[in-house]
Structures are given as structure tokens and as C-alpha cells.
Amino acid sequence: MSAVDEARPKRGAPKRGTPRSERAILDAAYGLLTQEGLEATTVEAIAARAGVSKVTIYKWWPNRAAVITSAFLSRSEDTLPYPERMTRDEIGAALLRMADSFRGTTGAVIRALIAEAQVDPGVAQAFRDGYLNARREHGRQIIRTAIAAGVIRQADPDVILDLLYAPLYFRLMVGHQPLTDEAVRAHVELALDGLLTE
């Protein structure tokens, strides 16, 4: 990667501005998302709530979708963690924390973003690039390390991530069954019986 590539802002990421204004914008966007819904979270509404101009927002983010995704990411990074080691206990604990987040505000926002992504290509791209793809690369690195150490079986890291995480997203989005801790524990046991080399 060249120095130019490294300096170029990632799609969906804000350009650096005044920290206080940036925080106010992200807080305003997240507040609107959780209180009024995605449709009401317009650039105009965000600017009014944050006490800034629309021009200020567009200086730091290319579009509404990028602001919304950045606001979501600013609140979700700590609540949707990957395990640092691929052990039964750490994977189980991480997925239980994720399920707990999905049962609250984070889950409601993810549902709204995924639904909006079906009709708004900008939201779809910002959500994939800013949230899914960025997080999955971290997950792939953890899985490659575990495979190299002989902890889990040799397999495509993307398939392993889907195996572990897709059932939680499925219950979140489809709602055919509740996303309970009991369901998560049962899923972890079945999945890891096939993955772990122990």
C-alpha cells in the first residue's frame, strides 16, 4: 500500500474535524436513530440536533449513510467483540455478549440498517465497508492464527465466521425464535464440536 493509499480516508469514515463538533454529530445521529428511526435520521435533523451546519457534516462525511454508519460504529465497537483466542470459553462469552447487545438498542439499529440497505445502495455500502468488512478482517486474522496453532481445523476463515455469527443475525432479522442465551450456548457447543481440534 502506498503512502497516498494510507492517507486516503476510508469510505464511510469521517474526515478529521473539531472533536467536540464531531462527537456532537455522532451523538445526534445515534440519538435520532434510536429515538426516531432511520427514516427520520436525515442530515438536516442531525445538523439541527448537533447545533452545526449541514456544510460542517458534509466536510467530514460524504453522505447521510456514512454519518449514520459512523454513529453506529462509535457505539458498537465495544459491544460486538471478537474473542482474542479461539477457545470454547472465549467464543461462548463473545457470542453471549453479542446476543445481549442484539436484544437491545444495538440490535434495533442493525435491523434498521440492514433493512434500509435493501433499498439504499449508499447505506448498504457504508454498512458493509464500515462495519462488516472491517470487523471480518479482524476475525479472519484471529482464525488464521488459531488454524496455524492447530487449535481449530483447517477451513476457509470466512466460512468459519459465517458458521459462528450468522445464526445470531438470522434470529435477529427473521425473529422466528428468540435470541436467548440458551440458544447461543447450544449453537456454540454444536459449532465448536466440529471446529476445535481438541
From TrEMBL:
Keywords: DNA-binding, Transcription, Transcription regulation. PROSITE patterns: HTH_TETR_2. Residues 1-20 are annotated as: Disordered. InterPro entries: Homeodomain-like_sf, HTH-type_TetR-like_transc_reg, HTH_TetR, Tet_transcr_reg_TetR-rel_C_sf, TetR_C. Pfam families: TetR_C_11, TetR_N. PANTHER family: HTH-TYPE TRANSCRIPTIONAL REGULATOR RUTR, TETR-FAMILY TRANSCRIPTIONAL REGULATOR. This is TetR/AcrR family transcriptional regulator.
